[in-house]
Each structure stands twice: as structure tokens, then as C-alpha cells.
């Protein structure tokens, strides 16, 4: 009698359903069904568990048919090989996903502020400008670029950059030092500050 028939006969002797046996072996009911109809065989580790659960000796369970043992060994090797392949493919997929996420992160890590709604106010002092922004919780304002405006010496152009910031700082203000401005273009002579991005002016402040 083949192993599937042995499992079925002993299970029925014990008045055990396929579901009950599956639960004891931590497998699905369809797995037990496949064993019993000879569609496939349990692996060697499960055979030991089946022997214990059904109180059936391994000699009785396996019989003396060496072909069955060979089939089980072959089936076990195939499953192990498939399991290794799945693990390798899963690891490669995880690497690809992580690499993609890292690439996306690097692309969006630094970004110029380009929305006028994200710039709330600008306060001018003798040697500095203080700008308050309204950025998403995951970004902080971290830098600026200051330069002359083509509109004249009483106007400067200012671009602001933000960075992904997953800390609790969430820096919303930035101090722009104006020491670098030419003397005839100092903070006292300024009338206008244009906040710009790569496409042009996004917001203008009159001082």
C-alpha cells in the first residue's frame, strides 16, 4: 500500500478528518488530500510527524517499496530547490526595491521651494533677512542662494532649498545673512526681495 493510502486508512481508523490531521501537522487540508490521492508526497520531515500523529511506524508507513522512498526524496529535493530559488528571487526583489527607493529619495532629497504658499513671511533686519516657510512635516528649509536682480540695485533675488527631514526639527525658518551684499546694495538700500526658483519669480516682498 502506498504512503497516501496508508495515511488515509490510518486517519479513517482514528476517525480523524483531513482538516483535523492538517491542523495537527500545520499544513493545509488540500495538502493532506493531495497526499492521499497520490498527487505528491510529504517530505521526509513531515513523514516523521505523520508517523507520530497517526501512531504508525515508519516501516508500515513507507512499506518496503524503495520507489516510494526515492519519490519522496526526489520530491523533497525539488521543494528545497524551489524554496532556495524563491528565497534568492525574494532577496533580489528586495534589493531592487530598496535601490529604487534610494534612487527616488536622492532625487527628491533636496528641492527648491517653488510654491508661493510655502513662503509665509519675510522680516528684514540690519544685517539679515528672516524668512518663515510653511513646508510639509517631512521637509525643512536648509539653504539659500542670494544674488543681484536684473531689475536694479534695490532688488535681490533669493532662492530657498528644502531637504527631506524625518527628524522632529522640522525647521521652518531660515536666516539669510546679507553681509555679502555689495555696499551700495546693502540691506538699507533694498526695496524688494524676489523669491525665485529655476522658472522665475514665485513671490515678491516689499521692504
From TrEMBL:
Entries under SUPFAM superfamilies matching the protein: lambda repressor-like DNA-binding domains
Full protein name: Helix-turn-helix domain-containing protein
Gene3D superfamilies per UniProt: lambda repressor-like DNA-binding domains
Coiled coil feature spans: none
Keywords: DNA-binding, Membrane, Transmembrane, Transmembrane helix
HTH cro/C1-type domain mapped to chain residues: 7-61
Record bears the keyword Transmembrane helix: yes
InterPro entries per the UniProt record, alphabetical: Cro/C1-type_HTH, Lambda_DNA-bd_dom_sf
Organism the protein comes from: Zhenpiania hominis
Amino acid at each position: 500500500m502506498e504512503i497516501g493510502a496508508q495515511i488515509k486508512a490510518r486517519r479513517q481508523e482514528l476517525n480523524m478528518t483531513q482538516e483535523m490531521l492538517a491542523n495537527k501537522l500545520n499544513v493545509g487540508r488540500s495538502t493532506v488530500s493531495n497526499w492521499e490521492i497520490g498527487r505528491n508526497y510529504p517530505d521526509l520531515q513531515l513523514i516523521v510527524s505523520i508517523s507520530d500523529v497517526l501512531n504508525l511506524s515508519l516501516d508500515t508507513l513507507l512499506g518496503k517499496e524503495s520507489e516510494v522512498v526515492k519519490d519522496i526524496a526526489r520530491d523533497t529535493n525539488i521543494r528545497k530547490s524551489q524554496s532556495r530559488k524563491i528565497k534568492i528571487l525574494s532577496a533580489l526583489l528586495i534589493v531592487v526595491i530598496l535601490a529604487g527607493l534610494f534612487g527616488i529619495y536622492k532625487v527628491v532629497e533636496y528641492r527648491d521651494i517653488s510654491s508661493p504658499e510655502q513662503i509665509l513671511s519675510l522680516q528684514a533686519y540690519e544685517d539679515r533677512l528672516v524668512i518663515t516657510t510653511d513646508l510639509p512635516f517631512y521637509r525643512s528649509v536648509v539653504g539659500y542662494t542670494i544674488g543681484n536682480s536684473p531689475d536694479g540695485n534695490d532688488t535681490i533675488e533669493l532662492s530657498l532649498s528644502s531637504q527631506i527631514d524625518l527628524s522632529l526639527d522640522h525647521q521652518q525658518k531660515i536666516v539669510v545673512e546679507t553681509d555679502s551684499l555689495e555696499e551700495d546694495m546693502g540691506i538699507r538700500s533694498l526695496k524688494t526681495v524676489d523669491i525665485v526658483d529655476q522658472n522665475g519669480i514665485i513671490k515678491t516682498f516689499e521692504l
